Amino acid sequence: MDLTKxxxxxxxxxxxxxxxxxxxxxxxxRYGLWSTxxxxxxxxxxxxxRDSVVIMTRWHLKCEQDGTLEQYTRVVGSGKxxxxx
Length: 85
Description:
The protein is of the alpha+beta class and 85 residues long.
């Protein structure tokens, strides 16, 4: 048995969890948001509605597959703290 399947069996069922396109899971979080995770266990998106996270997860995975994700990615701010705190 592969480790991913074993991990899924051990985890408790998430609220309203479903498998989408046989590629990723989508479920409702305890705060009323929706999250997605690949079958391999890589966390993907979190958003206010189920439809929005499904659409964005599909788009993100397609861009990764096509190799075009870097065309839509940018860094805003450096996050670097300079000087003495």
